[in-house]
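Technical annex B. To support the medicinal chemistry partners, we prepared a structural model of the target in complex with GDP-alpha-D-glucose, based solely on the information shown next.
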Amino acid sequence: MKSIYKEYNGSWIGWPGVAREDHTTKELDQIDALLGKENCVPVHLSHEEINLYYEGFSNRTIWPLFHYFTQYADFNADTWEVYKSVNQKMADATISVLEDGDSVWVHDYQLLLVPEMIKSKKPNVTVGFFLHIPFPSYEVFRTLPWRKELIKGMLGADLLGFHVYDYERHFFSTVRRLFGYEISFNQIHVEDRIILADAFPMGIDYDKFHDAALATHQKPLQEKSRLHQELEKYFLTSPDRRLILSIDRLDYTKGIPNRLKAFARFLEKYPEFRYKVTLVMLAVPSRGQVDHYQQLKKEVDELVGSINGLYGSINYTPVWYFYRSLPFENLIELYSSCDVALITPVRDGMNLVAKEYVASRTNKSGVIILSEMAGVAKEMGEAIIINPNDENDMAESIYQALTMPLDEQRERMSFLQDRIKRYDIFKWAHEFVKSLFKARDIQSDFLAK
Ligand code: GDG
């Protein structure tokens, strides 16, 4: 987003990620001054707001509900109140730097009420909104006590963006069922306003990943990171060794236990691959304050332990498990060293890891096993598409990936690379901004009639 807000001479408004009480007034002033130099407008939050708004309503209610984990969704009137008040704070901070004729782009599920809060005070400002997670089916969304308020909030936007058409379709049916507004093609008619909705599959900075992967290969051995040297040694010990990669935030939507169980099933069914195939699993700590995340961590730790206990030996560890985040350089080394990417979310708005893996495969080898529940699956017909709830099928797909002829891998990867390179992050952002201006023009034509 950096390039976009600089290109349009914009301001970046948001929470700087630290609690207000943890800093003195002098430190906060220094933070504000530094951010101000970059045209960033900080909105400071207290511990209580972070707890109830961010960890509370955002991550204990909207996140599980929108990812179809209805049993995890906590419907709590206290967190809802704070969600509203923090959204108002964000809207007020935005309004304070807005002038008539400006455009605003609001991002994601933490700010669903902000579009309407801005629009009601600044009707001559064009508001765009992009949702980075799925929008669920109405049958799931309707369980939320504040369903109408959230939709009203989103409908303050002139343009609503989703990763894929399915999410847009669910949103339309929700709007129709809750408010009965007329919808034709991708336009929602709300009294004297026309609101546009569209799918914008988010891309990545393709060249950044591709160039970094090329640079990694070209480095002399002694300049490579320790991780990379170890990876190369691993392959040297036996040429038929293979690595399968798994990278996510440790989140229950990512299907990490499903993946581990499928890998165990694969080792059980195909013993000839034991000692040859290792699953490299990077799980980045995330939302550790929320209980469901703590339970997931325990489940994953136990599964890794049991697979390594059952199939490991003194010189073979089936799962290399990293519970931490790694620097970008190591991420690239993993992407470019692993033969297979195993990406099995049970729900995922898009999933950028799949695209980053594709961009990093400079020699065009490599296979992606991809859940049909990820938005990215719509753009990746050349991957091996699986249902993450079908352990047997996933185990078979691991076998298929590891035995896929190189020519076929290259053919599939070429198609994927062309597509992901063409619709990269810059194209995505420009397409959104272009549509936002179009939404503004449609609205003014409509009012002029
Ligand atoms: C949400 C939606 C949607 C991961 N580990 C490390 C690291 N990463 C980076 C990856 C990738 C990003 O984090 C993860 O992005 P995803 O898209 O896979 O998933 P979410 O975080 O859940 O993102 C998702 C996305 O928003 C965008 O709209 O695709 O569906 O859930 O970029 O590279 N980066 C570094 N070290 C790590 O250890 N440096």
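Notes passed to the chemistry partners:
The chain has a mean pLDDT of 95.
The first helix runs from residue 2 to 7.
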